[in-house]
Amino acid sequence: MTLDTVLAGLLVVVGLVGVLVPVIPGLVLVVAGVAVWAVPRNDVVGWTVLGVAVAVVALGTVAKYLLPGARMRAAGVPGRTLVAGGVLGVVGFFVVPVVGLVLGFVAGVYLVELSRLGRAGAWPSTRTALAAVGWSILIELAAGLLATAVWVGALVLG
User: Fold this and answer.
1) Which of 32, 45, 54, 64 is the most core-located residue (most Cβ within 10 A)?
2) Contact at 8 Å (CB) between 15 and 28?
3) Can you say whether residue 123 is alpha, beta or left, with left for phi > 0 and alpha for psi between -120 and 50 degrees?
4) Exposed (0-12), middle (13-18) or buried (19+): which is 67, by Cβ within 10 Å?
5) Is the dihedral of CA 137, 141, 142, 143 positive or negative?
């Protein structure tokens, strides 16, 4: 096993963890790890694996934003609610590291929906937003795992 392969593996693992820990750019690190392995090889296998990994990550990134957003629009949750959740999530991240991101997001969504719909409608909208975020993370994780599987497949077969 070469140093490039070990470094690539570390980047891929950190990238997969980064999908779950919002501070780390997960999919970017997965692609970077595959590139660290593929570029020095400079052969058809390396470039093909890198191309497939980039395509999988690109499709996953598009799906990560389109699918949950469509579900939220269908449920009637406006975009400004998500913006408020995101802003309070960032603030929460600095107030209570890592966990504050989730707490701030939930609080932001709930407060905006509370002012928009009242007490009865705020929690269902918040649940819908949380489900959308969960789906977004799952889609991103699936894309990262699929790109990793392509790379591992090339390692095993090549």
Assistant:
1) 64
2) yes
3) alpha
4) middle
5) positive
Rounded-to-integer distance, Cα 98 and Cα 118, Å: 29
Q: 119-157 vs 99-117: helix axis angle to the nearest 10? A: 140
Residues 6+ apart with CB under 8 A from 116: 78, 81, 122
Name the domain count of the chain. 1
**What is the average per-residue pLDDT within 66-80?**
81
Average pLDDT over residues 27-56: 95
The residue whose two tokens read 């890592």 is 98
Q: Tell me which residue has tokens 């998500």.
A: 82
Matching residue, tokens 């707490």: 103
pLDDT at 7: 94
Question: Half-sphere exposure of 76 toward its Cβ, with a 13 Å CA cutoff?
Answer: 7
Is residue 121 predicted with pLDDT exceeding 90? Answer: no
75 token code pair: 């449920």
The vertex-57 CA angle with 10 and 89, nearest 5°, equals 80
Is the pTM higher than 0.85? The answer reads: no
Structural domain that includes position 76: 3-157
Q: Report yes or no: 109 and 125 within 8 Å, Cβ to Cβ.
A: yes
